[in-house]
# Entry
Amino acid sequence: MPLLSLDEVRRIAALARLKLSAEEEQVFQGQLSAILEYVEQLKELDVSGFEPMTHALAAGDVPPLRDDVVRPSLQPEEALANAPAREGTCFKVPRIIE
Amino acid sequence: MSTTARDLLDLSLVDLAGALDAKRVSSREVTDAALGRITATDTRVGAFLTVTAERARAQAEAADARAARGARLGALDGVPIALKDIFLTKGVATTAGSRILEGFVPPYDAAVVERLEAAGAVLLGKLNMDEFAMGSSNENSAYGPCRNPWDLSRTPGGSSGGSAAAVAARQAFGALGTDTGGSIREPAAFCGVVGMKPTYGRVSRYGVIAFASSLDQVGPLARTVGDSAALLQAIAGRDDRDMTSSARPVDDYRAALEGGAKGLRIGVPREWLEAEGLDAGVARRVREALAAYETMGARLVEVSLPHTRYGIAAYYLIAPAEASSNLARYDGVRYGLRKPGARGLKEMYAETRDEGFGAEPKRRIMLGTYALSAGYYDAYYLRAQKVRTLLRRDFDRAFEACDVVAGPVAPTVAFRLGEKASDPLAMYLADVFTVTCNLAALPGLSLPCGLHPTEAMPVGLQLLGRPFDEVTLFRAGRALERELPPLPRPPGIEP
# Structure
């Protein structure tokens, strides 16, 4: 039995906004199950009493926030230059309410 | 190619800087030689995705004009360098090796690109890579594989495969790459060049396409340790557009280079040389390098990194989790690919992402989404982050007894194209010696330590240091480089 069911693969794909083909669903079911079985070994470790390392910098290396002042940023034309579709100064998308 | 052009391209970056300084050669001359070399070899190697020849020539001429007025900007002024295609370059297409960014032209430069340009570097173009830096062989590029200049049937490593191959093939005097779990050090080892992953926070990530934000770091690939130090010197330092860039002053890397190995305590983790899957020829070259350090007056100290074997498992939860979040931005709205014909917004997202992402990013997005999803977060992501604390503690203890930790970069020499392509887990296991450095946020240097005894491919030695102690890595790396005979030219692309 693979660790992940096909239904779970479909549920994850929906969460991740990925439309997978039936073949991709099959392949990922096997591959992701194998990877998840491999990472099971972390359960051998007793991690109680250890803080998670949520930040890669030591406390003293985290720089202070900069002053909150207005600075130049991207102009609308620059920001829109790569848009697949636009209207005026807006990004245009397909219908939102279905 | 003329002998002169060929000899010119064999110069180290530092020696080229000397020649430019003494006006024995012009930047235009050396830039033309590099562009000629790219034209002559890159149909076979596949290191470049974009060559910016005109721009490079203009930058070279500007450098020559500065040299003529006696106003060279420093070591990199007029030196041809290339960039992994993960760095945003204003006005120059940037793909991250992905179809989903095909045709994307960034409106601004990455901080490191600004710094290289301010130092007068000549930028030759953008280099091949695994899609979104996910891979150890460059085979996950959507734009075709890159090949190893030592043997074209083998991979150059990844994800900065194009960066390592271009430097080894004498197409560029140095390159920038990124390293999330070994993506600078492993290709450097596979291609016989020097790769430096600096401490997390040493180099700005502003304008670097994000993969796993708590692990990603920018660093140089070059042919010598001194070249690598010169490149890091130019790109390191605080940038207030990257919240995680450190305000610590940047050390003088080149001043420390010739300090020698005498008195250094070199930590040898007992778990590394006994690791399952470590090739005997690779182990032999690594042991010889360690013996060379002893001869030079360094002391070998046995240390223990007991959690090494959990590194891959922790890495392949944390990196995909962060990737699934970072790659959410590729949705067909603001830039890149949009699949036409969708009836609604959600369908457009899902179809665009299915078409635009290759198999590896999809796999990691799926894995990361699962690891972060309701009910699984504590069991996977949170536990992996606690293991990260344990890994860092292993290193903190080791560094009480030694100044650098030394061992292999990869368990084998460069493998063949296709060899691991169908088995993602086998590919992940090749990262066993490199991921812990990222997880513990340490600096790591990969440098050649000879050719494999039977396969005639380069073997890499890895040196890890204390946080922000790049100086000691450069010093130790340079000492070994001076001791060992230099590698020959890579034979895969001769003549």
Chain B touches chain A through 74 residues (CB under 8 Å). The first strand of chain B starts at residue 48 and ends at 51. Chain B has a mean pLDDT of 96.
